[in-house]
Amino acid sequence: MPTVKLTKRVVDAIKPAAKPTYFYDADLAGFFLRVQPTGTKVWGAEYRAGTGRGAPTRRVTIAAFGKLTPDEARAAARKLLASVAHGEDPAVQKAEKAKELTLAGLIDLYAAEGCFVQRGIRQGEPMKERTRAYTLARLRHHVVPLLGKRRVTEVGVGDIERFVRDVGAGKTAKDEKAGPRARIIVRGGDGAARKVVRDLSAVFSFAVRRGLMPTNPCDTAAVRKTDNRRNRYLTLDEVARLGKAFDALDEEGVNPKAVNIARLWALTGCRRDEIAGLRWSEVDFDRSLLVLEDSKTGKSVRPLGVAARVLLEAITPEADSPYVFPAEHGKGHYQGTKRVWPKVIEKAKLPGVTPHTLRHTMGSTAVSTGEALALTGAILGHANARSTSLYAHVQNDPSKSAADRVSLTIADALSRKTKSKSGPQSARPEEDAA
């Protein structure tokens, strides 16, 4: 572990690494700064609880960097280490005190110290900042209003099951003005309940690891902790209706950025923000590729079908923005698809269809028209172990050809003027592990 004199200048210059890193102070043994991969910095102290080499080593968090200066944190560490010399065990005392935490307080602790590592496909890697923000928002908008005042040791299985029913019934839903041009919109329902109970289970698992509670009540609660598999996809007849809806919105003068984003969802099978936040630097026209720097599964290379390429080539870049679809105001990317998409599905008479449905449609169309599963996985940018093992040796050229064939099929349906009775009859949307 690196040892440096922990001054403000030194701490300001420390950059986060791929894993949590501890920097120990050169002046006070045991005093450290922990730097998380997200950039969060926390002061703490390390000590042996007892005498002899067999005594366990413990670490205690003091405060977040910014709440205390280096000198103030060092003074707090010196006081804590002095109590150890008098036979006390601050970590145990803190754990006992923390057992009186409310669930709202536990969520704050999780945000500061536990909400950094994700599990699943990329187990052990730092949680993406966007995922972290959504996770904490769900916890604070659903859990805190209903269970926030309960002591963590008092929350039982029945409380979790009742909480899920209440969120599903919409008790936490709200639509509030949060300032100029800003609103807080919280949607309840079964989908929200499944997501937030999964997040809450992670919070309780964190508390169990910290010794704040004996078990995770979500483990034995009779609730569904994973989302329902989305197996909705569009037939080519439905895609044709979607294309007519796009054309109608163009004629009505709807912002072309929103319509072109939606068209690209259909033509590429990319996820919502992979297209909405697409940068010109990620579009490789020479090789007909999308080289996404930060997709859901990390950096991802996708073949760019000819229909999607033609659409992108017709867009004129804005000189002062790196985005293909810049925001109307400010420096970010365009965010208006949420207002336009309901108009699309209303005109197309496709209730319940979401942008993610178009991703399933790309996958189901590929499979039903005879494309190999490996090529389908390459088009969609799958990164789970099963898909990776299937298309590990797929090169860009054959997957690009597959993308051409599939996107041209969808492009033809988007521009179809008359209803066809044909459509994929053997689509297998379950292959999409998005």
The run of helices and strands is EHEEEEHHHHHEEHHHHEEEHHHHHH
Helix tally equals 16
Spatial sequence of strands, sheet with the most strands: 1-2-3-4-5
Say how many strands there are: 10
Task: Indicate the structural class.
Answer: alpha+beta
Indicate the CATH topology of the largest domain.
hpI Integrase, Chain A
**CATH class placement of the largest domain:** Mainly Alpha
Outline the biggest β-sheet: 5 strands, mixed
Shape: elongated
**Could you say how many structural domains there are in total?**
3
Q: Can you name the CATH architecture of the largest domain?
A: Orthogonal Bundle
How are the elements arranged and paired?
Layout: E1 3-4, H1 8-13, E2 21-25, E3 31-35, E4 41-48, E5 57-64, H2 70-85, H3 90-98, H4 103-114, H5 129-147, H6 157-168, E6 174-179, E7 182-186, H7 190-209, H8 236-252, H9 256-268, H10 272-276, E8 283-284, E9 289-295, E10 298-303, H11 306-313, H12 337-347, H13 355-368, H14 373-380, H15 385-391, H16 396-414
Parallel strand pairs: 1-2
Antiparallel strand pairs: 2-3, 3-4, 4-5, 6-7, 8-9, 9-10
Helix pairs in contact: 4-5, 5-6, 5-7, 6-7, 8-9, 8-12, 8-16, 9-13, 13-14, 14-15, 14-16
Which characteristics define this entry?
434 residues, Double Stranded RNA Binding Domain, DNA polymerase, domain 1, hpI Integrase, Chain A, five-stranded mixed sheet
Description:
The protein is α+β, with helices and mostly antiparallel strands and 434 residues long. It has 16 helices and 10 strands. The chain has helices spanning 8-13, 70-85, 90-98, 103-114, 129-147, 157-168, 190-209, 236-252, 256-268, 272-276, 306-313, 337-347, 355-368, 373-380, 385-391, 396-414; strands spanning 3-4, 21-25, 31-35, 41-48, 57-64, 174-179, 182-186, 283-284, 289-295, 298-303. The two termini are 39 Å apart.
